[in-house]
Structure formats: structure tokens, C-alpha cells
Amino acid sequence: MPAKINHSSFKKFFTSEKNGGIILLCCVVISLIIANTSYRDGFSSFLTQNIGFAPVIYSVSAWINDGLMAIFFLLVGLEIKRELIEGELSSIKKASLPVLAALGGMIIPALIYFFFNKGEATASGWGIPMATDIAFALAIIALLGKSVPASLKIFLAALAIADDLGAILVIAIFYTAQIHWNYLAMATGIFALLLALNYFKVKSLWFYLIPGIFLWYFVHHSGIHATIAGVLLAFTIPTNNTAIESPLEKLEHALTIPVNYLIMPIFALANTNITFQKEMVNGLASPVGLGIIVGLFVGKTIGVSLFSWLAVKIKLAKLPSGAKWKHVIGVGMLAGIGFTMSIFIALLSFNDAEHISEAKFAILCASVLAGVTGFIYLKGIGKTKAHS
Question: What is the mean pLDDT of residues 197-217?
């Protein structure tokens, strides 16, 4: 039976995520250095500069957060579609564990955040601790090498992908302020055209990418966040039922390196510019800080572990091959690395600069805590096994 999907793209995706995570970390450090030196004001001024041509004139920051991130979400959408066709999300039995683990890793952190921020002006940030940063999470588990079962890496990748799909839905449903129906109608028309092209088996990517630019423009003006256009476009890109590389795989292959080595680092560079102040330490004990830190570090671990246990207990799923419950707990810790996705949702959640800075610092602390703890914990399990 011929394979539906060529798995070489996934291998390249995973490898690139590992290396891309290292570059991402470097850009985080550079951004923090810039934000705390004399270059701060010049960099902030650069991000507010308007560039483009009528009718698409936006600030550099807007181009990054609405434009480049739409390309990132296009890649995420392609990965989700491929996993739905033949990956870890292709059947109920395969998808049950990562999907339910992701669901638990979203619900519990959101409830924890809401508990700390109920009745506060910052209650709208409940989506912040729901996110998992796929680049950093996969980079860290890749560094563990043979300390963890190979199946655990696939489980984390599928969990992060399911988490991304959940984050996309949350952004589309809950972080859309006002709908402009005329633009939405035009976006819907273009999406219908793309679906028709797929139905009639049009294979040339240009027939999808050019209308996709207009889809982005109309979605952006409709009030729905422009990044959703990337996901919609991804789901219209055709695949095939042979081993021959499909248009979906070609586009994913073309986007993997630019996204992981350029787009995500640029996003981190532009949005991690936290100017450290003494008040920030106190801010970690504020409702926002506690909601994010406890939500990401504790909530993700509990949510992923608990919902995984329930899925196995009611026989909806089984543990990854060679993995034990202590491994699942470690994956839950790594899922608490929210970083770029959490920062992205924080920018949508708050208009107040103080709350945004407070949230960014809490996200940074929680993600470092989750990443370091998860790495040490899983590394320790691997050493224990090696000596047993």
C-alpha cells in the first residue's frame, strides 16, 4: 500500500525545529540586551516606523506580528493537515492521547489563570498560559537524545501541534474584537475559491499563494486576526495518496527553514524586548504573574498528565511505546514552555503597556523554569534507567 505522505519533510521539520530553537534563544538574549541598553529607544522607534504602500501601510511591528506570523501559522496549518491525514492525529486511536493531553494542558492553565485574575482588568489574559512553544519544546527534547524514548518526541510534537490548533481556535473565537462583515464576506469568497481549486485538483502552488495574499488582506481588515488566514490557506493546499511529493509537502519544505531560522527569531527579537525594572520582580506575585507562572509551569504539568491518565484509564489511548508515566510528567513540564505563542496571545490580550511587560516577564520566567526543570527531570530519568 503506498504511503500517503512522504515522511522526509517531517524529519527535516523536526531537525530544523531543534536548530531553530537555538537561534530563537540567541535572539531572545539579543532582544533583552537591546531593551536594557542605550539602543532601547532607537529599536522601539524602528518598530513603530510605517512601511509599505497604499493600501498596505503598517508599522514594522505590525508587519512582523500580523504578516510574518501569518506565514508561521501557514506552516503550522500545513503540519496539522499532514498529521490529520497520516500522522499522530490521523485516527481517533492515534490522536486521543496527544489531543486529550493538549486539551488538559489548555483547560487547567486557563482555569488557574482565571482563579488568580477573576474580577481583575487582566482577566482577558486567560489564553496566555494555554500555549506551548513548539520550537523551544522540541529543541529541548531533541537535546535529550537517547535519554528519552523516541516515541516521546513524537508524542510531544503531536501534543504541541494539537495545542497550536487549540490556540488558533482560541485566537479566532475569543480574541477578535469587532467583525467587519463586508471584508469577512470577501475573505469567505476567496476561501471558497481555494477550496474549489483543491476540489478540481489544481496542483500549482501559485494558484493558491496569490489568492492567499488577498485572503490575508481581507481577513486582516475583517477584524479576525490576520494569522488565521495562514491556517485557512494551509487547509486548502492539496496533498496526494502516493509517495510523490505533494504541493502540501513542497510548500512545507520551502517554509520550514525560513520560518524556523528567520521568522520566529525575528518575532522573538521584536517582542521579547523587556526592560528590566525592580517592580517586575514584585509583578511576578501579581494576579497576572501568578496566573501565568503557575498556569504554565504547574497547570501544564497537571493538565497534560491528568488528561493523559484519564485517556489511558478509559482505554481511549495507550502510552507511547517505551514510555512510562514519569515520562509523561516530563513532557507536561516541557509543554509549559509557552514563550513565543504565549507572548503572541499576551499582545492580543492587553492594550496596557505595563500589563504587556508584566506578562512578558512572567512568560519568560515560567518558560525558563519549565524548560530547565523538564530537561533536568527527563535527563535524570534517563540516567537512572542507564544505571539500572
Answer: 95
